[in-house]
């Protein structure tokens, strides 16, 4: 089932999410619905807060990036096959020189900006069976993970922009929160629902 994606301005996007355990109700169904929602909106990642749930869960599937001709064959192959579920994730380390990449977000449609992030991460997480892993990632995979991880920490990519850039996009962000935007996937707008 495709879930509505929560739009910019909803308080759930600014909350630090809570850890869950294997007793979390209907977790398999939620994960399946989140995958369907992410693919329906042509996303490469989706975090539970984006569907209104302040829990430490996010999904990543970087296959759409595998079409980039500027990447090496090895990088394209890695991106093509990277699909994971992250539960109760904690980034343990971030390292390397920050690099810019043009990011967007399903909760903030039609806004794309360069965001600086470090290229390497070490992350501890649990999978859908609650087995624990500690793994290292770099490049675009690390970046997608960092973006989704920020969601469970209550951080949006727009929070990482300079005050000048934030001023430039303020009008767009206000319009998104009011539902004054054309999108081709289901969304929930905070300011519209308050008026009813």
UniProtKB/TrEMBL annotation:
Q: Tell me which positions the record assigns to the signal sequence.
A: none
Cofactor remark: Binds 1 Fe(2+) ion.
Which SUPFAM superfamilies does the UniProt record give? Peptide deformylase
Quick one: which gene encodes this? def
Q: Which reaction does it catalyse?
A: N-terminal N-formyl-L-methionyl-[peptide] + H2O = N-terminal L-methionyl-[peptide] + formate
Is Metal-binding a UniProt keyword of this protein?
A: yes
Q: Which cofactor does it need?
A: Fe(2+)
In alphabetical order, the GO MF annotations are: peptide deformylase activity
> Which Pfam families is this protein grouped with?
Pep_deformylase
Which UniProt keyword terms apply here?
A: Hydrolase, Iron, Metal-binding, Protein biosynthesis
What family does this belong to?
Answer: Belongs to the polypeptide deformylase family.
Q: Which residues bind Fe cation?
A: 105, 147, 151
What NCBIfam families does this protein's entry cite? Answer: pept_deformyl, PRK00150.1-3
Identify the Gene3D superfamilies for this entry.
Answer: Peptide deformylase
Q: What is its EC number?
A: 3.5.1.88
InterPro entries assigned = Peptide_deformylase, Peptide_deformylase_sf
- Which sites are catalytic? 148
The protein's name is: Peptide deformylase
Origin species, per record, is Winogradskyella alexanderae
Q: What class of enzyme is it?
A: hydrolase
Functional description taken from the UniProt entry: Removes the formyl group from the N-terminal Met of newly synthesized proteins. Requires at least a dipeptide for an efficient rate of reaction. N-terminal L-methionine is a prerequisite for activity but the enzyme has broad specificity at other positions.
């Amino acid at each position: 089932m495709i879930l509505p994606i929560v739009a910019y301005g909803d308080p759930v996007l600014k909350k630090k999410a809570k850890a869950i355990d294997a007793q979390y109700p209907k977790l398999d169904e939620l994960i399946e619905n989140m995958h369907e929602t992410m693919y329906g909106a042509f996303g490469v990642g989706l975090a539970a807060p984006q569907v209104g749930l302040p829990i430490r869960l996010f999904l990543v599937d970087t296959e759409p990036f595998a079409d980039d001709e500027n990447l090496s064959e090895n990088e394209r192959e890695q991106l093509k096959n990277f699909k994971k579920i992250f539960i109760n994730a904690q980034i343990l380390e971030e390292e390397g020189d920050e690099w810019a990449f043009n990011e967007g977000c399903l909760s903030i449609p039609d806004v794309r900006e360069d965001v600086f992030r470090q290229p390497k991460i070490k992350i501890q997480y649990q999978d859908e069976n609650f087995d624990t892993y500690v793994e290292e990632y770099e490049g675009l995979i690390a970046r997608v993970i960092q973006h989704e991880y920020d969601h469970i920490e209550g951080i949006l990519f727009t929070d990482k922009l300079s005050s000048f850039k934030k001023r430039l996009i303020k009008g767009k962000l206000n319009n998104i929160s009011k539902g004054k935007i054309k999108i081709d996937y289901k969304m929930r707008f905070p300011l519209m629902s308050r008026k009813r």
